[in-house]
Amino acid sequence: MPVKKEVQIGEKRFSLPGDEVGMATENSKLGPGLGVTKMVLTSQRCGIVKQRGKWVWLDYLEKRYVPNVGDQVVGQVTHKISDGWRVEVGCAALVNLPYMSFENATKRFRPNVQIGDLVYGKIVETVEAEMSCIGHNYGVLPSGGNILRLAPGDARRLLLHYNVVAETIGKKFASEITCGVNGWVYIKAAEHKQMIIIANAIQRSLLASNDEMATVINSVIRAQ
Questions:
Q1: Among residues 8, 45, 131, 160, which is most buried (max CB within 10 A)?
Q2: Domain carrying residue 54
C-alpha cells in the first residue's frame, strides 16, 4: 500500500466526499469540510483542500454557515434568556451566549449586553450551538459599525488575506474590520460613507486574484 503524503501548504486539489486527501500529523488542526480517521484526512464535501500552517480545511461552496468548534464568529444579540443571550450568526438556529462566557464575568457582576449589540467570539459547542467571548479581542463590538454579510467561503478567503486587505484600507481610512468565519464582517470607520466604501472595496477585492486584491481596493477607494 503506498504511503500517503501530508497535504502541503498552498497545494490545491479538488476532492469529492469520501476522498482521502492526505495524512494528518499530531499538530494538525482541522477546519470545516474534513474528517480524520486513523490520521487519514477525508473530505466530507466537494471542494478544494487548503492548508495554512497547522490548519487544514476544505474550501467549499455553502449558502448557510454551519458552526464548527473553534470558529471565530461575528453575530448580533437577538434575545435575553435566563442564563445569557441568544445570538444570530447566520446558521440554522440561534447560538447560546452564557453570561459567564465573558472575561471577568461572575454570577454577581454580569456583562452589559443589550439586544441588538454586535458581538465577536468563538464557537465552543455545536450540538446545541454555543459561543464564548472569553479571549483576546472578543466581546461586544463598538456601537456605530456596519455589518457586511458574505458567503462563508468568501469570509474564509478574506481571513486568509486579511493583512493585505486591512493594511491597504488602513492607509486611507482609520477603521476597524473584524471578519467572522460565518461571513459577517464588522466595519467601523469615522463616517458612514467611509464604511460603505470599505464594504464595497472588500466585496470587489474578493472577485480579484490574490495578487490583485490591493490594486482593486485602491481603485475602488480612488473612484469614490
A1: 131
A2: 14-59
Average of per-residue pLDDT across 131-140 = 94
pLDDT digit string, tens, across residues 74-113 = 999 999 999 999 999 999 899 999 999 999 898 888 899 9
Helical H runs in 112-191? 152-160, 162-170
Structural domain includes residue 65 = no
**50 and 78 part of one domain:** no
Any domain includes 7:
no
Q: Are residues 185 and 205 in the same domain?
A: yes
* Span 186-221, pLDDT tens digits: 999 999 999 999 999 999 999 999 899 999 999 999
Residue 180 lies in a domain: yes
Cβ–Cβ under 8 Å, residues 38 and 60: no
* Alpha-carbon distances, residue 50 vs 21, 142, 149 (angstroms): 10, 33, 23
Contacts of residue 92, Cβ cutoff 8 Å, sequence gap at least 6: 64, 66
Q: How many domains does the chain have?
A: 3
Express as a percent the part of the chain with pLDDT over 90: 60
